[in-house]
Structure formats: structure tokens, C-alpha cells
């Protein structure tokens, strides 16, 4: 009887530890590449050290302060991680999906791929953000509203150097150009490649704050990059770019081989790593 109750208690503790470990690991994963990650790690370290010291040395005042500080710390964390929390809640509440038939998506991807190829060949820098579940309205308002059919000619005109709208990003919503000349949030993320410029950082920034997909044509190199969830897949060949876009916007047509391709491409990422279980496709 005693053995059975010991066993039950052991399993209860084991399950508790596993659940806690999964929760802590998921929180760490979600926040590890964010602005507040170091602050969070610092706060946790200070708290653990102080708690240990106060309980071992029976420091009553410190113990009292730690208990009272816990509530303040919760409020501080809400403030520090406000953008990340807003993003997570927006994802939970988002219900709008990329609602086109596969034929329309393929046609659009053909047109879009042609446009980026022409921009890349002409070495004209460009930045696009595809709105998905989460509205990009607030970023649209930083630029000029357009509401036009997307064509390679329009993209080339917008991003032609020295034209009024060439600075900033173009927002594409529901296969239409919603706005251009938009200012996207610039990511503060630490990247392995220190030469990453503002255009690429803006692509990372907008995809950290929303579920948008960003595409960058580098003015310097003519290289194409795709960014999702703050993860930049750089220097894609035109063929890889097209395949990757299909993988993202036509997920139901993916095969296991595509998954492998995705992992290979992710290995080229700068500044972040990803496990094969990380799905890049949110819709
Ligand atoms: N916050 C922003 N939102 C949108 N576009 C931006 C933002 N910041 C910079 N850009 C665009 O990026 C251009 C500057 O790019 P920069 O050369 O710094 O970036 P890069 O990542 O090195 O890209 P490239 O490889 O094209 O040079 C600006 O002219 C502007 O059009």
C-alpha cells in the first residue's frame, strides 16, 4: 500500500516537473530572441539568488521584499513584453485567412515572382509585406494608400530610385497593393550577420510584430530574402524563392521534400536557428 502511494506521489511530481519544464522551455523559446530576453534572464537570476540566500541565511527582510516585489515584477514583465504579448494575443484572435483559390494564388505568385525578378535584375531595392491574419493597417497609415492591382510595372515604378514612394515598404493585402512608402518597425534583434541593413531589419521587424510575410530585394546584391516570424531566409535563388513562396501560400500542396528544402534554406538564415518542427506556415 505504502509502495503504491509512494509510486503515485513519484509520478505526480514527475508529471508536475515535466509540465513546468515544457512551460518554461516554451516561454524561453518564445522570448529568447526578443528585446526583453536579457532583462528577463537577469531578473530571474537575481530573484533565484536572492530567494536562495534569504532562505539559507534566513534573511527575513529580503524574504519580505521578494514576496512583495513579485506583484511588481508581474506588472514590469507585462510592460517589458508588451509588443510580444500584443502579437501573441493578436494571433490568437485573428480569424482572417489568405482567402483565395489556389489558381488565383498561383497566378498572383507568378506575377509577384516576375516583379521581384525584374527588380533584382535592375538592382532596385524593394520591401514587401503580405498581410495575413493580423491587420497591417497601422503600418499602412505611415505610407500612402494605393489600393491597386499588383503588377510588375507598378512595383517597378514604386521602387524606382528617387520616386516619392521608393523609400519604405509596400503592403500587399488580399492580392492588392494596399499602400507603399510605409515605415515598418525595425527589429533590434541581434543577428549573426552584422552587415544586415535597415531594409532587412524592417522585414524582420514587421514579421516579429505580426504574422505577415516579408520579401526583400536587396539593392546591393539583387538577392531575394523571405522573412516569417522574424526569421530571415536570405539569399534565395529565384527558383528557391518561388518554391518557398508556394510552400508558404499554398501549404496544402507541400510534400515532405518541401519540408526538407525548407530546413536546408533555414540553415542559411542569419541571426536565428530553427528546428525542423518549427512550422513557418501559419495559415
Ligand atoms: N523602417 C523601415 N521601413 C521600411 N523601409 C525601410 C525602413 N528602414 C529602411 N527602409 C528602406 O531600406 C532602405 C535602406 O536600406 P539599407 O541599405 O539600409 O538596407 P539593407 O538591408 O542593407 O538593404 P540593401 O541590401 O537593399 O542595401 C531605405 O532607403 C528604405 O527604403
Automatic annotation (TrEMBL):
Residues 253-263 have a biased composition (Acidic residues). Residues 272-283 have a biased composition (Low complexity). The chain crosses the membrane at residues 6-27, 39-56, 62-81. Residues 250-283 are annotated as: Disordered. GO terms for biological process: cAMP biosynthetic process. It catalyses: 2 ATP = 3',3'-c-di-AMP + 2 diphosphate. Keywords: ATP-binding, Cell membrane, Membrane, Nucleotide-binding, Nucleotidyltransferase, Transferase, Transmembrane, Transmembrane helix. GO terms for molecular function: adenylate cyclase activity; ATP binding; diadenylate cyclase activity. Residues 82-238 form the DAC domain. Probably a homodimer. NCBIfam families: diadenylate cyclase CdaA. This is Diadenylate cyclase. It comes from Persicirhabdus sediminis.
Amino acid at each position: 500500500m505504502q509502495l503504491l502511494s509512494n509510486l503515485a506521489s513519484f509520478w505526480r511530481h514527475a508529471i508536475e516537473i515535466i509540465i513546468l519544464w515544457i512551460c518554461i522551455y516554451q516561454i524561453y523559446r518564445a522570448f529568447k530572441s526578443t528585446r526583453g530576453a536579457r532583462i528577463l534572464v537577469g531578473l530571474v537570476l537575481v530573484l533565484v539568488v536572492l530567494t536562495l540566500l534569504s532562505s539559507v541565511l534566513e534573511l527575513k527582510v529580503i524574504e519580505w521584499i521578494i514576496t512583495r516585489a513579485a506583484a511588481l515584477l508581474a506588472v514590469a514583465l507585462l510592460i517589458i513584453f508588451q509588443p510580444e504579448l500584443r502579437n501573441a494575443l493578436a494571433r490568437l484572435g485573428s480569424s482572417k485567412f489568405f482567402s483565395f483559390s489556389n489558381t488565383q494564388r498561383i497566378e498572383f505568385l507568378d506575377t509577384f515572382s516576375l516583379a521581384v525578378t525584374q527588380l533584382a535584375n535592375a538592382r532596385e531595392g524593394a520591401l514587401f509585406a503580405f498581410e495575413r491574419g493580423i491587420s497591417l493597417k497601422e503600418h499602412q497609415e505611415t505610407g500612402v494608400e494605393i489600393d491597386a492591382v499588383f503588377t510588375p510595372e507598378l512595383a517597378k515604378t514604386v521602387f524606382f530610385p528617387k520616386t516619392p514612394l521608393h523609400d519604405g515598404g509596400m503592403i500587399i493585402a488580399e492580392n492588392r497593393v494596399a499602400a507603399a512608402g510605409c515605415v515598418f518597425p525595425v527589429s533590434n534583434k541581434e543577428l549573426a550577420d552584422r552587415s544586415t541593413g535597415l531594409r532587412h531589419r524592417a522585414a524582420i521587424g514587421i514579421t516579429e510584430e505580426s504574422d505577415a510575410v516579408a520579401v526583400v530585394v536587396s539593392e546591393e546584391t539583387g538577392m531575394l530574402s523571405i522573412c516569417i516570424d522574424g526569421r530571415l531566409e536570405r539569399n534565395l535563388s529565384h527558383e528557391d524563392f518561388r518554391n518557398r513562396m508556394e510552400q508558404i501560400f499554398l501549404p496544402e500542396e507541400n510534400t515532405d521534400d518541401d519540408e526538407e528544402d525548407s530546413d536546408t534554406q533555414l540553415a542559411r538564415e542569419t541571426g536565428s536557428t530553427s528546428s525542423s518542427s518549427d512550422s513557418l506556415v501559419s495559415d
